[in-house]
Specification:
Blueprint (H helix, E strand, L loop, with lengths): L2 E5 L2 E4 L4 E8 L7 E7 L6 E6 L6 E3 L7 E7 L3 E8 L8 E8 L17 E2 L3 E6 L1
Parallel strand pairs: 2-11
Antiparallel strand pairs: 1-3, 3-8, 4-5, 4-9, 5-6, 7-8, 9-10, 9-11
Length: 130
């Protein structure tokens, strides 16, 4: 059974930091491209960051570039995925989801297309006050 469980969300003031984590199990995650997405109230779910299965390649949405860092710790059938979020802004307020994409890529490949992701966590709320 595949499980992705996010944690680390909360309420923070603008300029503050949070570190999101995603504990994932049930897949050979060392072969899987991972991503963080977010969905603000009344808006579509969008990519925040993605990371290749090796961890050597990453992608960031322009809105978070330079402030957020995605990282992963691979084990055989589990993974810890993280999103370090610094200098948070009120517009970062959203529910954040981790997701796994089981399409086959080389060690530095990844997708930023929401539709390519097969497994999703339940989400964790991040609220940034001004």
């Amino acid at each position: 059974q595949v499980q992705l469980v996010e944690s680390g969300g909360g309420l923070v003031q603008a300029g503050g930091s949070l570190r999101l984590s995603c504990a994932a199990s049930g897949l050979p995650f060392s072969l899987v491209n991972m991503g963080w997405f977010r969905q603000a109230p009344g808006k579509e779910r969008v990519i925040v960051a993605a990371i290749s299965r090796s961890g050597r390649s990453t992608y960031y949405a322009d809105s978070v570039k330079g402030r957020f860092t995605i990282s992963r710790d691979n084990a055989k059938n589990t993974i810890d995925l993280h999103l370090q979020m610094n200098n948070l802004k009120p517009e970062d307020t959203a529910v954040y989801y981790c997701a796994a994409n089981t399409m086959k890529y080389d060690s530095i490949g990844y997708s930023i297309d929401l539709g390519d992701y097969d497994y999703w966590g339940q989400g964790t709320q991040v609220t940034v006050s001004s």
